[in-house]
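Q: Got a minute? One more chain.
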Amino acid sequence: MTSALSTEKLIFAQSVDALFVRALGPYLTRDGRRRLKEAGLDLSESLRPAYALEQWKAFLRVAASDIFPGASPQEAWSGLGERYLQGYRQTAQGRASMALVTRLGARHTLERVPHNVRAGNNFNEVRVEELGTQAATLWMKDVMADNPFFACGFLAETLRAAGAGDLSVVPVAFDGTAATFRLTWTHAAKKPVAVGLATR
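A: Always. Here it is, folded:
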């Protein structure tokens, strides 16, 4: 029993707070809140210390359809990832972390992504390999969603917060759990982020 609990993938309350309370709370419909409650997240009550990864994924499915009805799955999930980072910036830990990000620039900000991602759960792992001053490959052990686009959204928003522009965050490999992303950017924010699956 103890062994099973210690290996269970858990999303910590700060992640749920960042996305579902701070970022999405004012925009969720009554039906969306009802469906979240049915999935195990009652926003009228205090958050639990942690939620199982599968619960988190169910919460994301509800939010994708409730907040982005009519959007393509890629747009909806990327949008949730962006909102996640925006909500994280409103937390005490997020404010401190993102204040540093704005001074570091894109390259050094990517070096902090493994720490920031792991702070929100007990299982994830990220590796970053620089391809140049304005490009990198990032591997994520678990994208924490049904597809890689949620991760695309929060990676793009992280780079945007660091002052990067002309962003492209593209999943080049995905096995259902882990994914590899190719990231490119310029130093001045000019154009909206491009998110999509790479063609082989």
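A: The chain has two domains: 2-88, 105-195.
Q: Perfect, thanks.
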